[in-house]
Specification:
The protein is an all-alpha fold. The protein is about 70% helix and about 0% strand. It is flat.
């Protein structure tokens, strides 16, 4: 966790990913308050508003705190951020878009999760 905190402070361009990952790691360990999780994810979204996974995680966190409208908005924007794979992307770029940014996320799966809180099926 110290490594992720160092990356967040590094101005390396990796801060958004580190904030998103730190929120996830601390949650998995049961060592994060909901407000801190939201704070980390909001910071990630501020730095990289074009990503999908940080917005999905923030949407889930908002919903878990009863902030349904804010959560739904994050899912709405995340869906807009899903990209088509570019033939210009090399293997590393495809891997980053798939596993870090989420811009190659499964649109149908995201749409299904987005509808869950609204009651739409």
């Amino acid at each position: 966790m110290r490594l992720l905190e160092d990356v967040i402070d590094s101005q390396s361009g990796l801060e958004a990913a580190a904030q998103m990952l730190l929120a996830e790691v601390l949650e998995d360990l049961g060592e994060i308050a909901p407000a801190r999780k939201i704070e980390l994810l909001e910071a990630s979204v501020r730095l990289r508003p074009d990503w999908v996974f940080n917005r999905v995680r923030l949407g889930r966190a908002y919903r878990a705190q009863g902030r349904i409208a804010q959560g739904n908005e994050q899912f709405h924007v995340a869906l807009k951020n899903v990209a088509m794979e570019s033939s210009e992307w090399d293997l590393a770029a495809r891997a980053a878009e798939s596993s870090i940014t989420g811009r190659l996320a499964d649109r149908k799966q995201l749409e299904q999760e987005a509808r869950q809180a609204t009651g739409d099926q």
